[in-house]
Amino acid sequence: MRHLAIYDMDKTITAQATWTRFLIHAAKARAPWRLALLPAAAIAGLGYLLKRIDRAGLKQITHRLLLGGALSPEALERVGQSFAEAEVTHGVLAGARERIAADRAAGYRLVMATASHGYYARAIAQRLGFDDVIATEARRDGNGHVLSLIEGENCYGGAKLRLVEKWMAQNGVVRSEVHVRAYSDHVSDAPLLEWADEPFAVNAHGPLAALAKARSWPELDWREPKRA
Fold first, then answer.
1. Of the four listed, 116, 179, 201, 207, which is most buried by Cβ atoms within 10 Å?
2. 3 state SS of 129
3. How does pLDDT run across 139-189, given as a tens digit for each residue?
4. Could you tell me which residues come within 8 angstroms of residue 3 by beta carbon, excluding any fewer than 6 positions away?
């Protein structure tokens, strides 16, 4: 039987959420004047909290504000790689590194499944030794420039499981022939965790911790620094 280990990224592998920090990193590197648009991004965030826009809409608006409407793949690659280098150096939890290494040693195919945009999540995953990445993807124009619009579904909640299943079909992975571990910090990943053979609530916030207790899922906490 084949084995998959599917990891969420933000606050599961990384200590902090990455999207806003990536946008700030990219704006500083490319067009520092865009940092003046952060208050507008905060207003968009308030709109999300008030349920006026959804998560995909928030992502598209903040991308447009801090990155611009269209960006060459080369420019995006540069900022994605530089952000990933800093994040893997300073922002990855030690417990996550250890578990990833253990799953790899046990023969698991390592898959990152994240709502973060693939244009920087893949760079982080590559540095951590992942085999595959399932992420939110950006639309491109006829010249290949990356747009602020999302292509397909935002890889979040139930959509994440659908994209995992789509990836499996494209890669010839049959569910009945594979053993799946899944790791996440957030209750939005409940569909994926319910579907997995071994679900792990990692660094869980309150709602996921409650669900994990109700379902008798193992809970892992990688947030505490290792002590000698």
1. 201
2. coil
3. 999 989 999 999 999 999 999 999 999 999 999 999 999 999 999 999 999
4. 106, 107, 108, 109, 178, 179, 180, 181
Q: pTM (2 decimals)?
A: 0.94
Q: What are the φ/ψ torsions at residue 62 (nearest 5 degrees)?
A: -70, -35
Cα–Cα nearest to 218, from 226, 197, 227: 197
Give domain status of residue 71, yes or no.
yes
- Alpha-helical runs (H) found in the chain: 19-30, 38-49, 55-66, 73-90, 94-105, 118-128, 158-170, 190-195, 206-215
Q: Which long-range contacts (CB under 8 A, 24 or more apart) does 52-55 make?
A: 54/154, 55/115, 55/154, 55/156
Q: Is residue 86 part of a domain?
A: yes
| C-alpha to C-alpha distance for 123 and 24, rounded to whole angstroms | 17
CATH of residue 37: 3.40.50.1000
Distance CA 41, CA 27 (A): 13
CA distances from 199 to 5, 39, 169, 202, 219 (A): 10, 38, 21, 9, 9
Task: Confirm whether 149 is domain-assigned.
Answer: yes
> 127-136, pLDDT tens digit by residue?
999 999 999 9
Q: What six digits make up the tokens of 180?
A: 């799946």
Is 42 inside any structural domain? yes
DSSP secondary structure letter of residue 145: P
Domain count, the chain: 1
Helix (H) or strand (E) holding 4: strand 2-7
- One-letter amino acid identity for 215? R
Residue 9: strand, helix, or coil: coil
